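In the current project phase, we have settled on a layout for protein records. One protein thus recorded is set out beneath this paragraph:
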Amino acid sequence: MPLTFARNPEKPLPLHVLGPDTLDRWITDQASNVATWVKASGFGGGIGETLLISDGNGAPKMALAGHGTAAQRARGRFALAAAAMALPEGSYELAGDLSGIALEEEVLGWLLAGYAFDRYRTQPAARAQLVAPEGIDATRIEAIAAGEALTRDLINTPASDMGPEELEDAAAGLATEFGATCDVIRGDDLLSRNFPMIHAVGRASPRAPRLIELGWGETGPKLTLVGKGVCFDTGGLDIKPAASMGLMKKDMGGSAAVLGLARMIMALDLPVQLRVLIPAVENAVSGNAFRPQDILTARNGMTVEINNTDAEGRLVLADALAYGAEGGPDLMLSMATLTGAARVAVGPDIAPFFSDDDAVADAIARAGGKVADPVWRLPFHAPYEPMIEPGIADLDNAPKGGFAGSITAALFLRRFAGTTSRYTHFDIYGWQPAAAPARPKGGVGQGARAVLEALPELLGL
């Protein structure tokens, strides 16, 4: 089902969005038979509650959707999406007091409730369609929903069907759809083109590593997005235990997030020069796998001691970031499912990000709050720099001690992001552990909507 608003519906049902604090006032304005029916039904305006009201001849004439109290809504997002899942098939037109940012959040949630990953079996999704309310930018909201759906589909696809080649195909398909370019460097060509760490991480797999580069737009500020594309992570020779390997199909969640964001940007025709870089690899185990204590030389000439082959994401990102910095972007941003430390710090629902630029950080934080895409700034804490300096090489890919793992990973990446670009890094989870309104269990986008909302301020658009 496309995540779009209803197209030319015939006689959509009015849908009154009511909470416990507004229900009684609404009832007093209704005909006595309606008031009696609502009271008898037990409808209380709670999140997820719905009620159809008949015209007296057996046909529905309106519907009610519970919106909960302000306190209940503060404990989650997309409250109306819960009702969208419960309403019967048909088209609906909002009636009530929703407006502004609250309205935009709820109608986006409604569209996202229509998402289902049904590649392998039929899955439930909302069947109720919504007429685009007045006062919203329907085109923008549909573009955001489509970008989020792309991110979810890519993450949800198992590694058997989503390796480096399939990730390349997804990027190429997106480029074709929007008239962008897509260039790819594969296999041993990575060595001759000076991407040694991408090659080192991916060389053990029969699925060739590659660097995917998508380009779009010829005028405007330069925006470079870099996404971690580890299509499956065994941990390499420092192999993960089974419990830690179970979700590793999502280790390409950073690439999925930047492709979803790129789709939003291109669909909205934002006036930017967009560049998307995805180092796509599978971190596998074989006789030619890179080893603990190896020292690799990165694209920018820095040497890296490998103290854990399971800290491979920062290695492939390092080469891609160094390459991105060479283009002199006005803003460079990376997204990666990088560290368990980030999850310990903020849990699965919040996307921590790092930036040295207070104006950039403030804009992203405000935007995340505005569009219900929770983010939280963590510091590039310079006093921790010695933790990633092993002595035998310039950098250590996995410092010992167990402290500040997300920060030290971000500091590692910053070494490759150049000195002139404004660089921001997101350490995302990319997974919804349990179903919630508009977010079924599975792959999910994080940070992309916050960045999209902040771009006009960040780039002067």
Observations:
- The longest strand covers residues 273-283.
- The first helix runs from residue 20 to 28.
- The chain has a mean pLDDT of 96.
- The chain is about 35% helix and 20% strand.
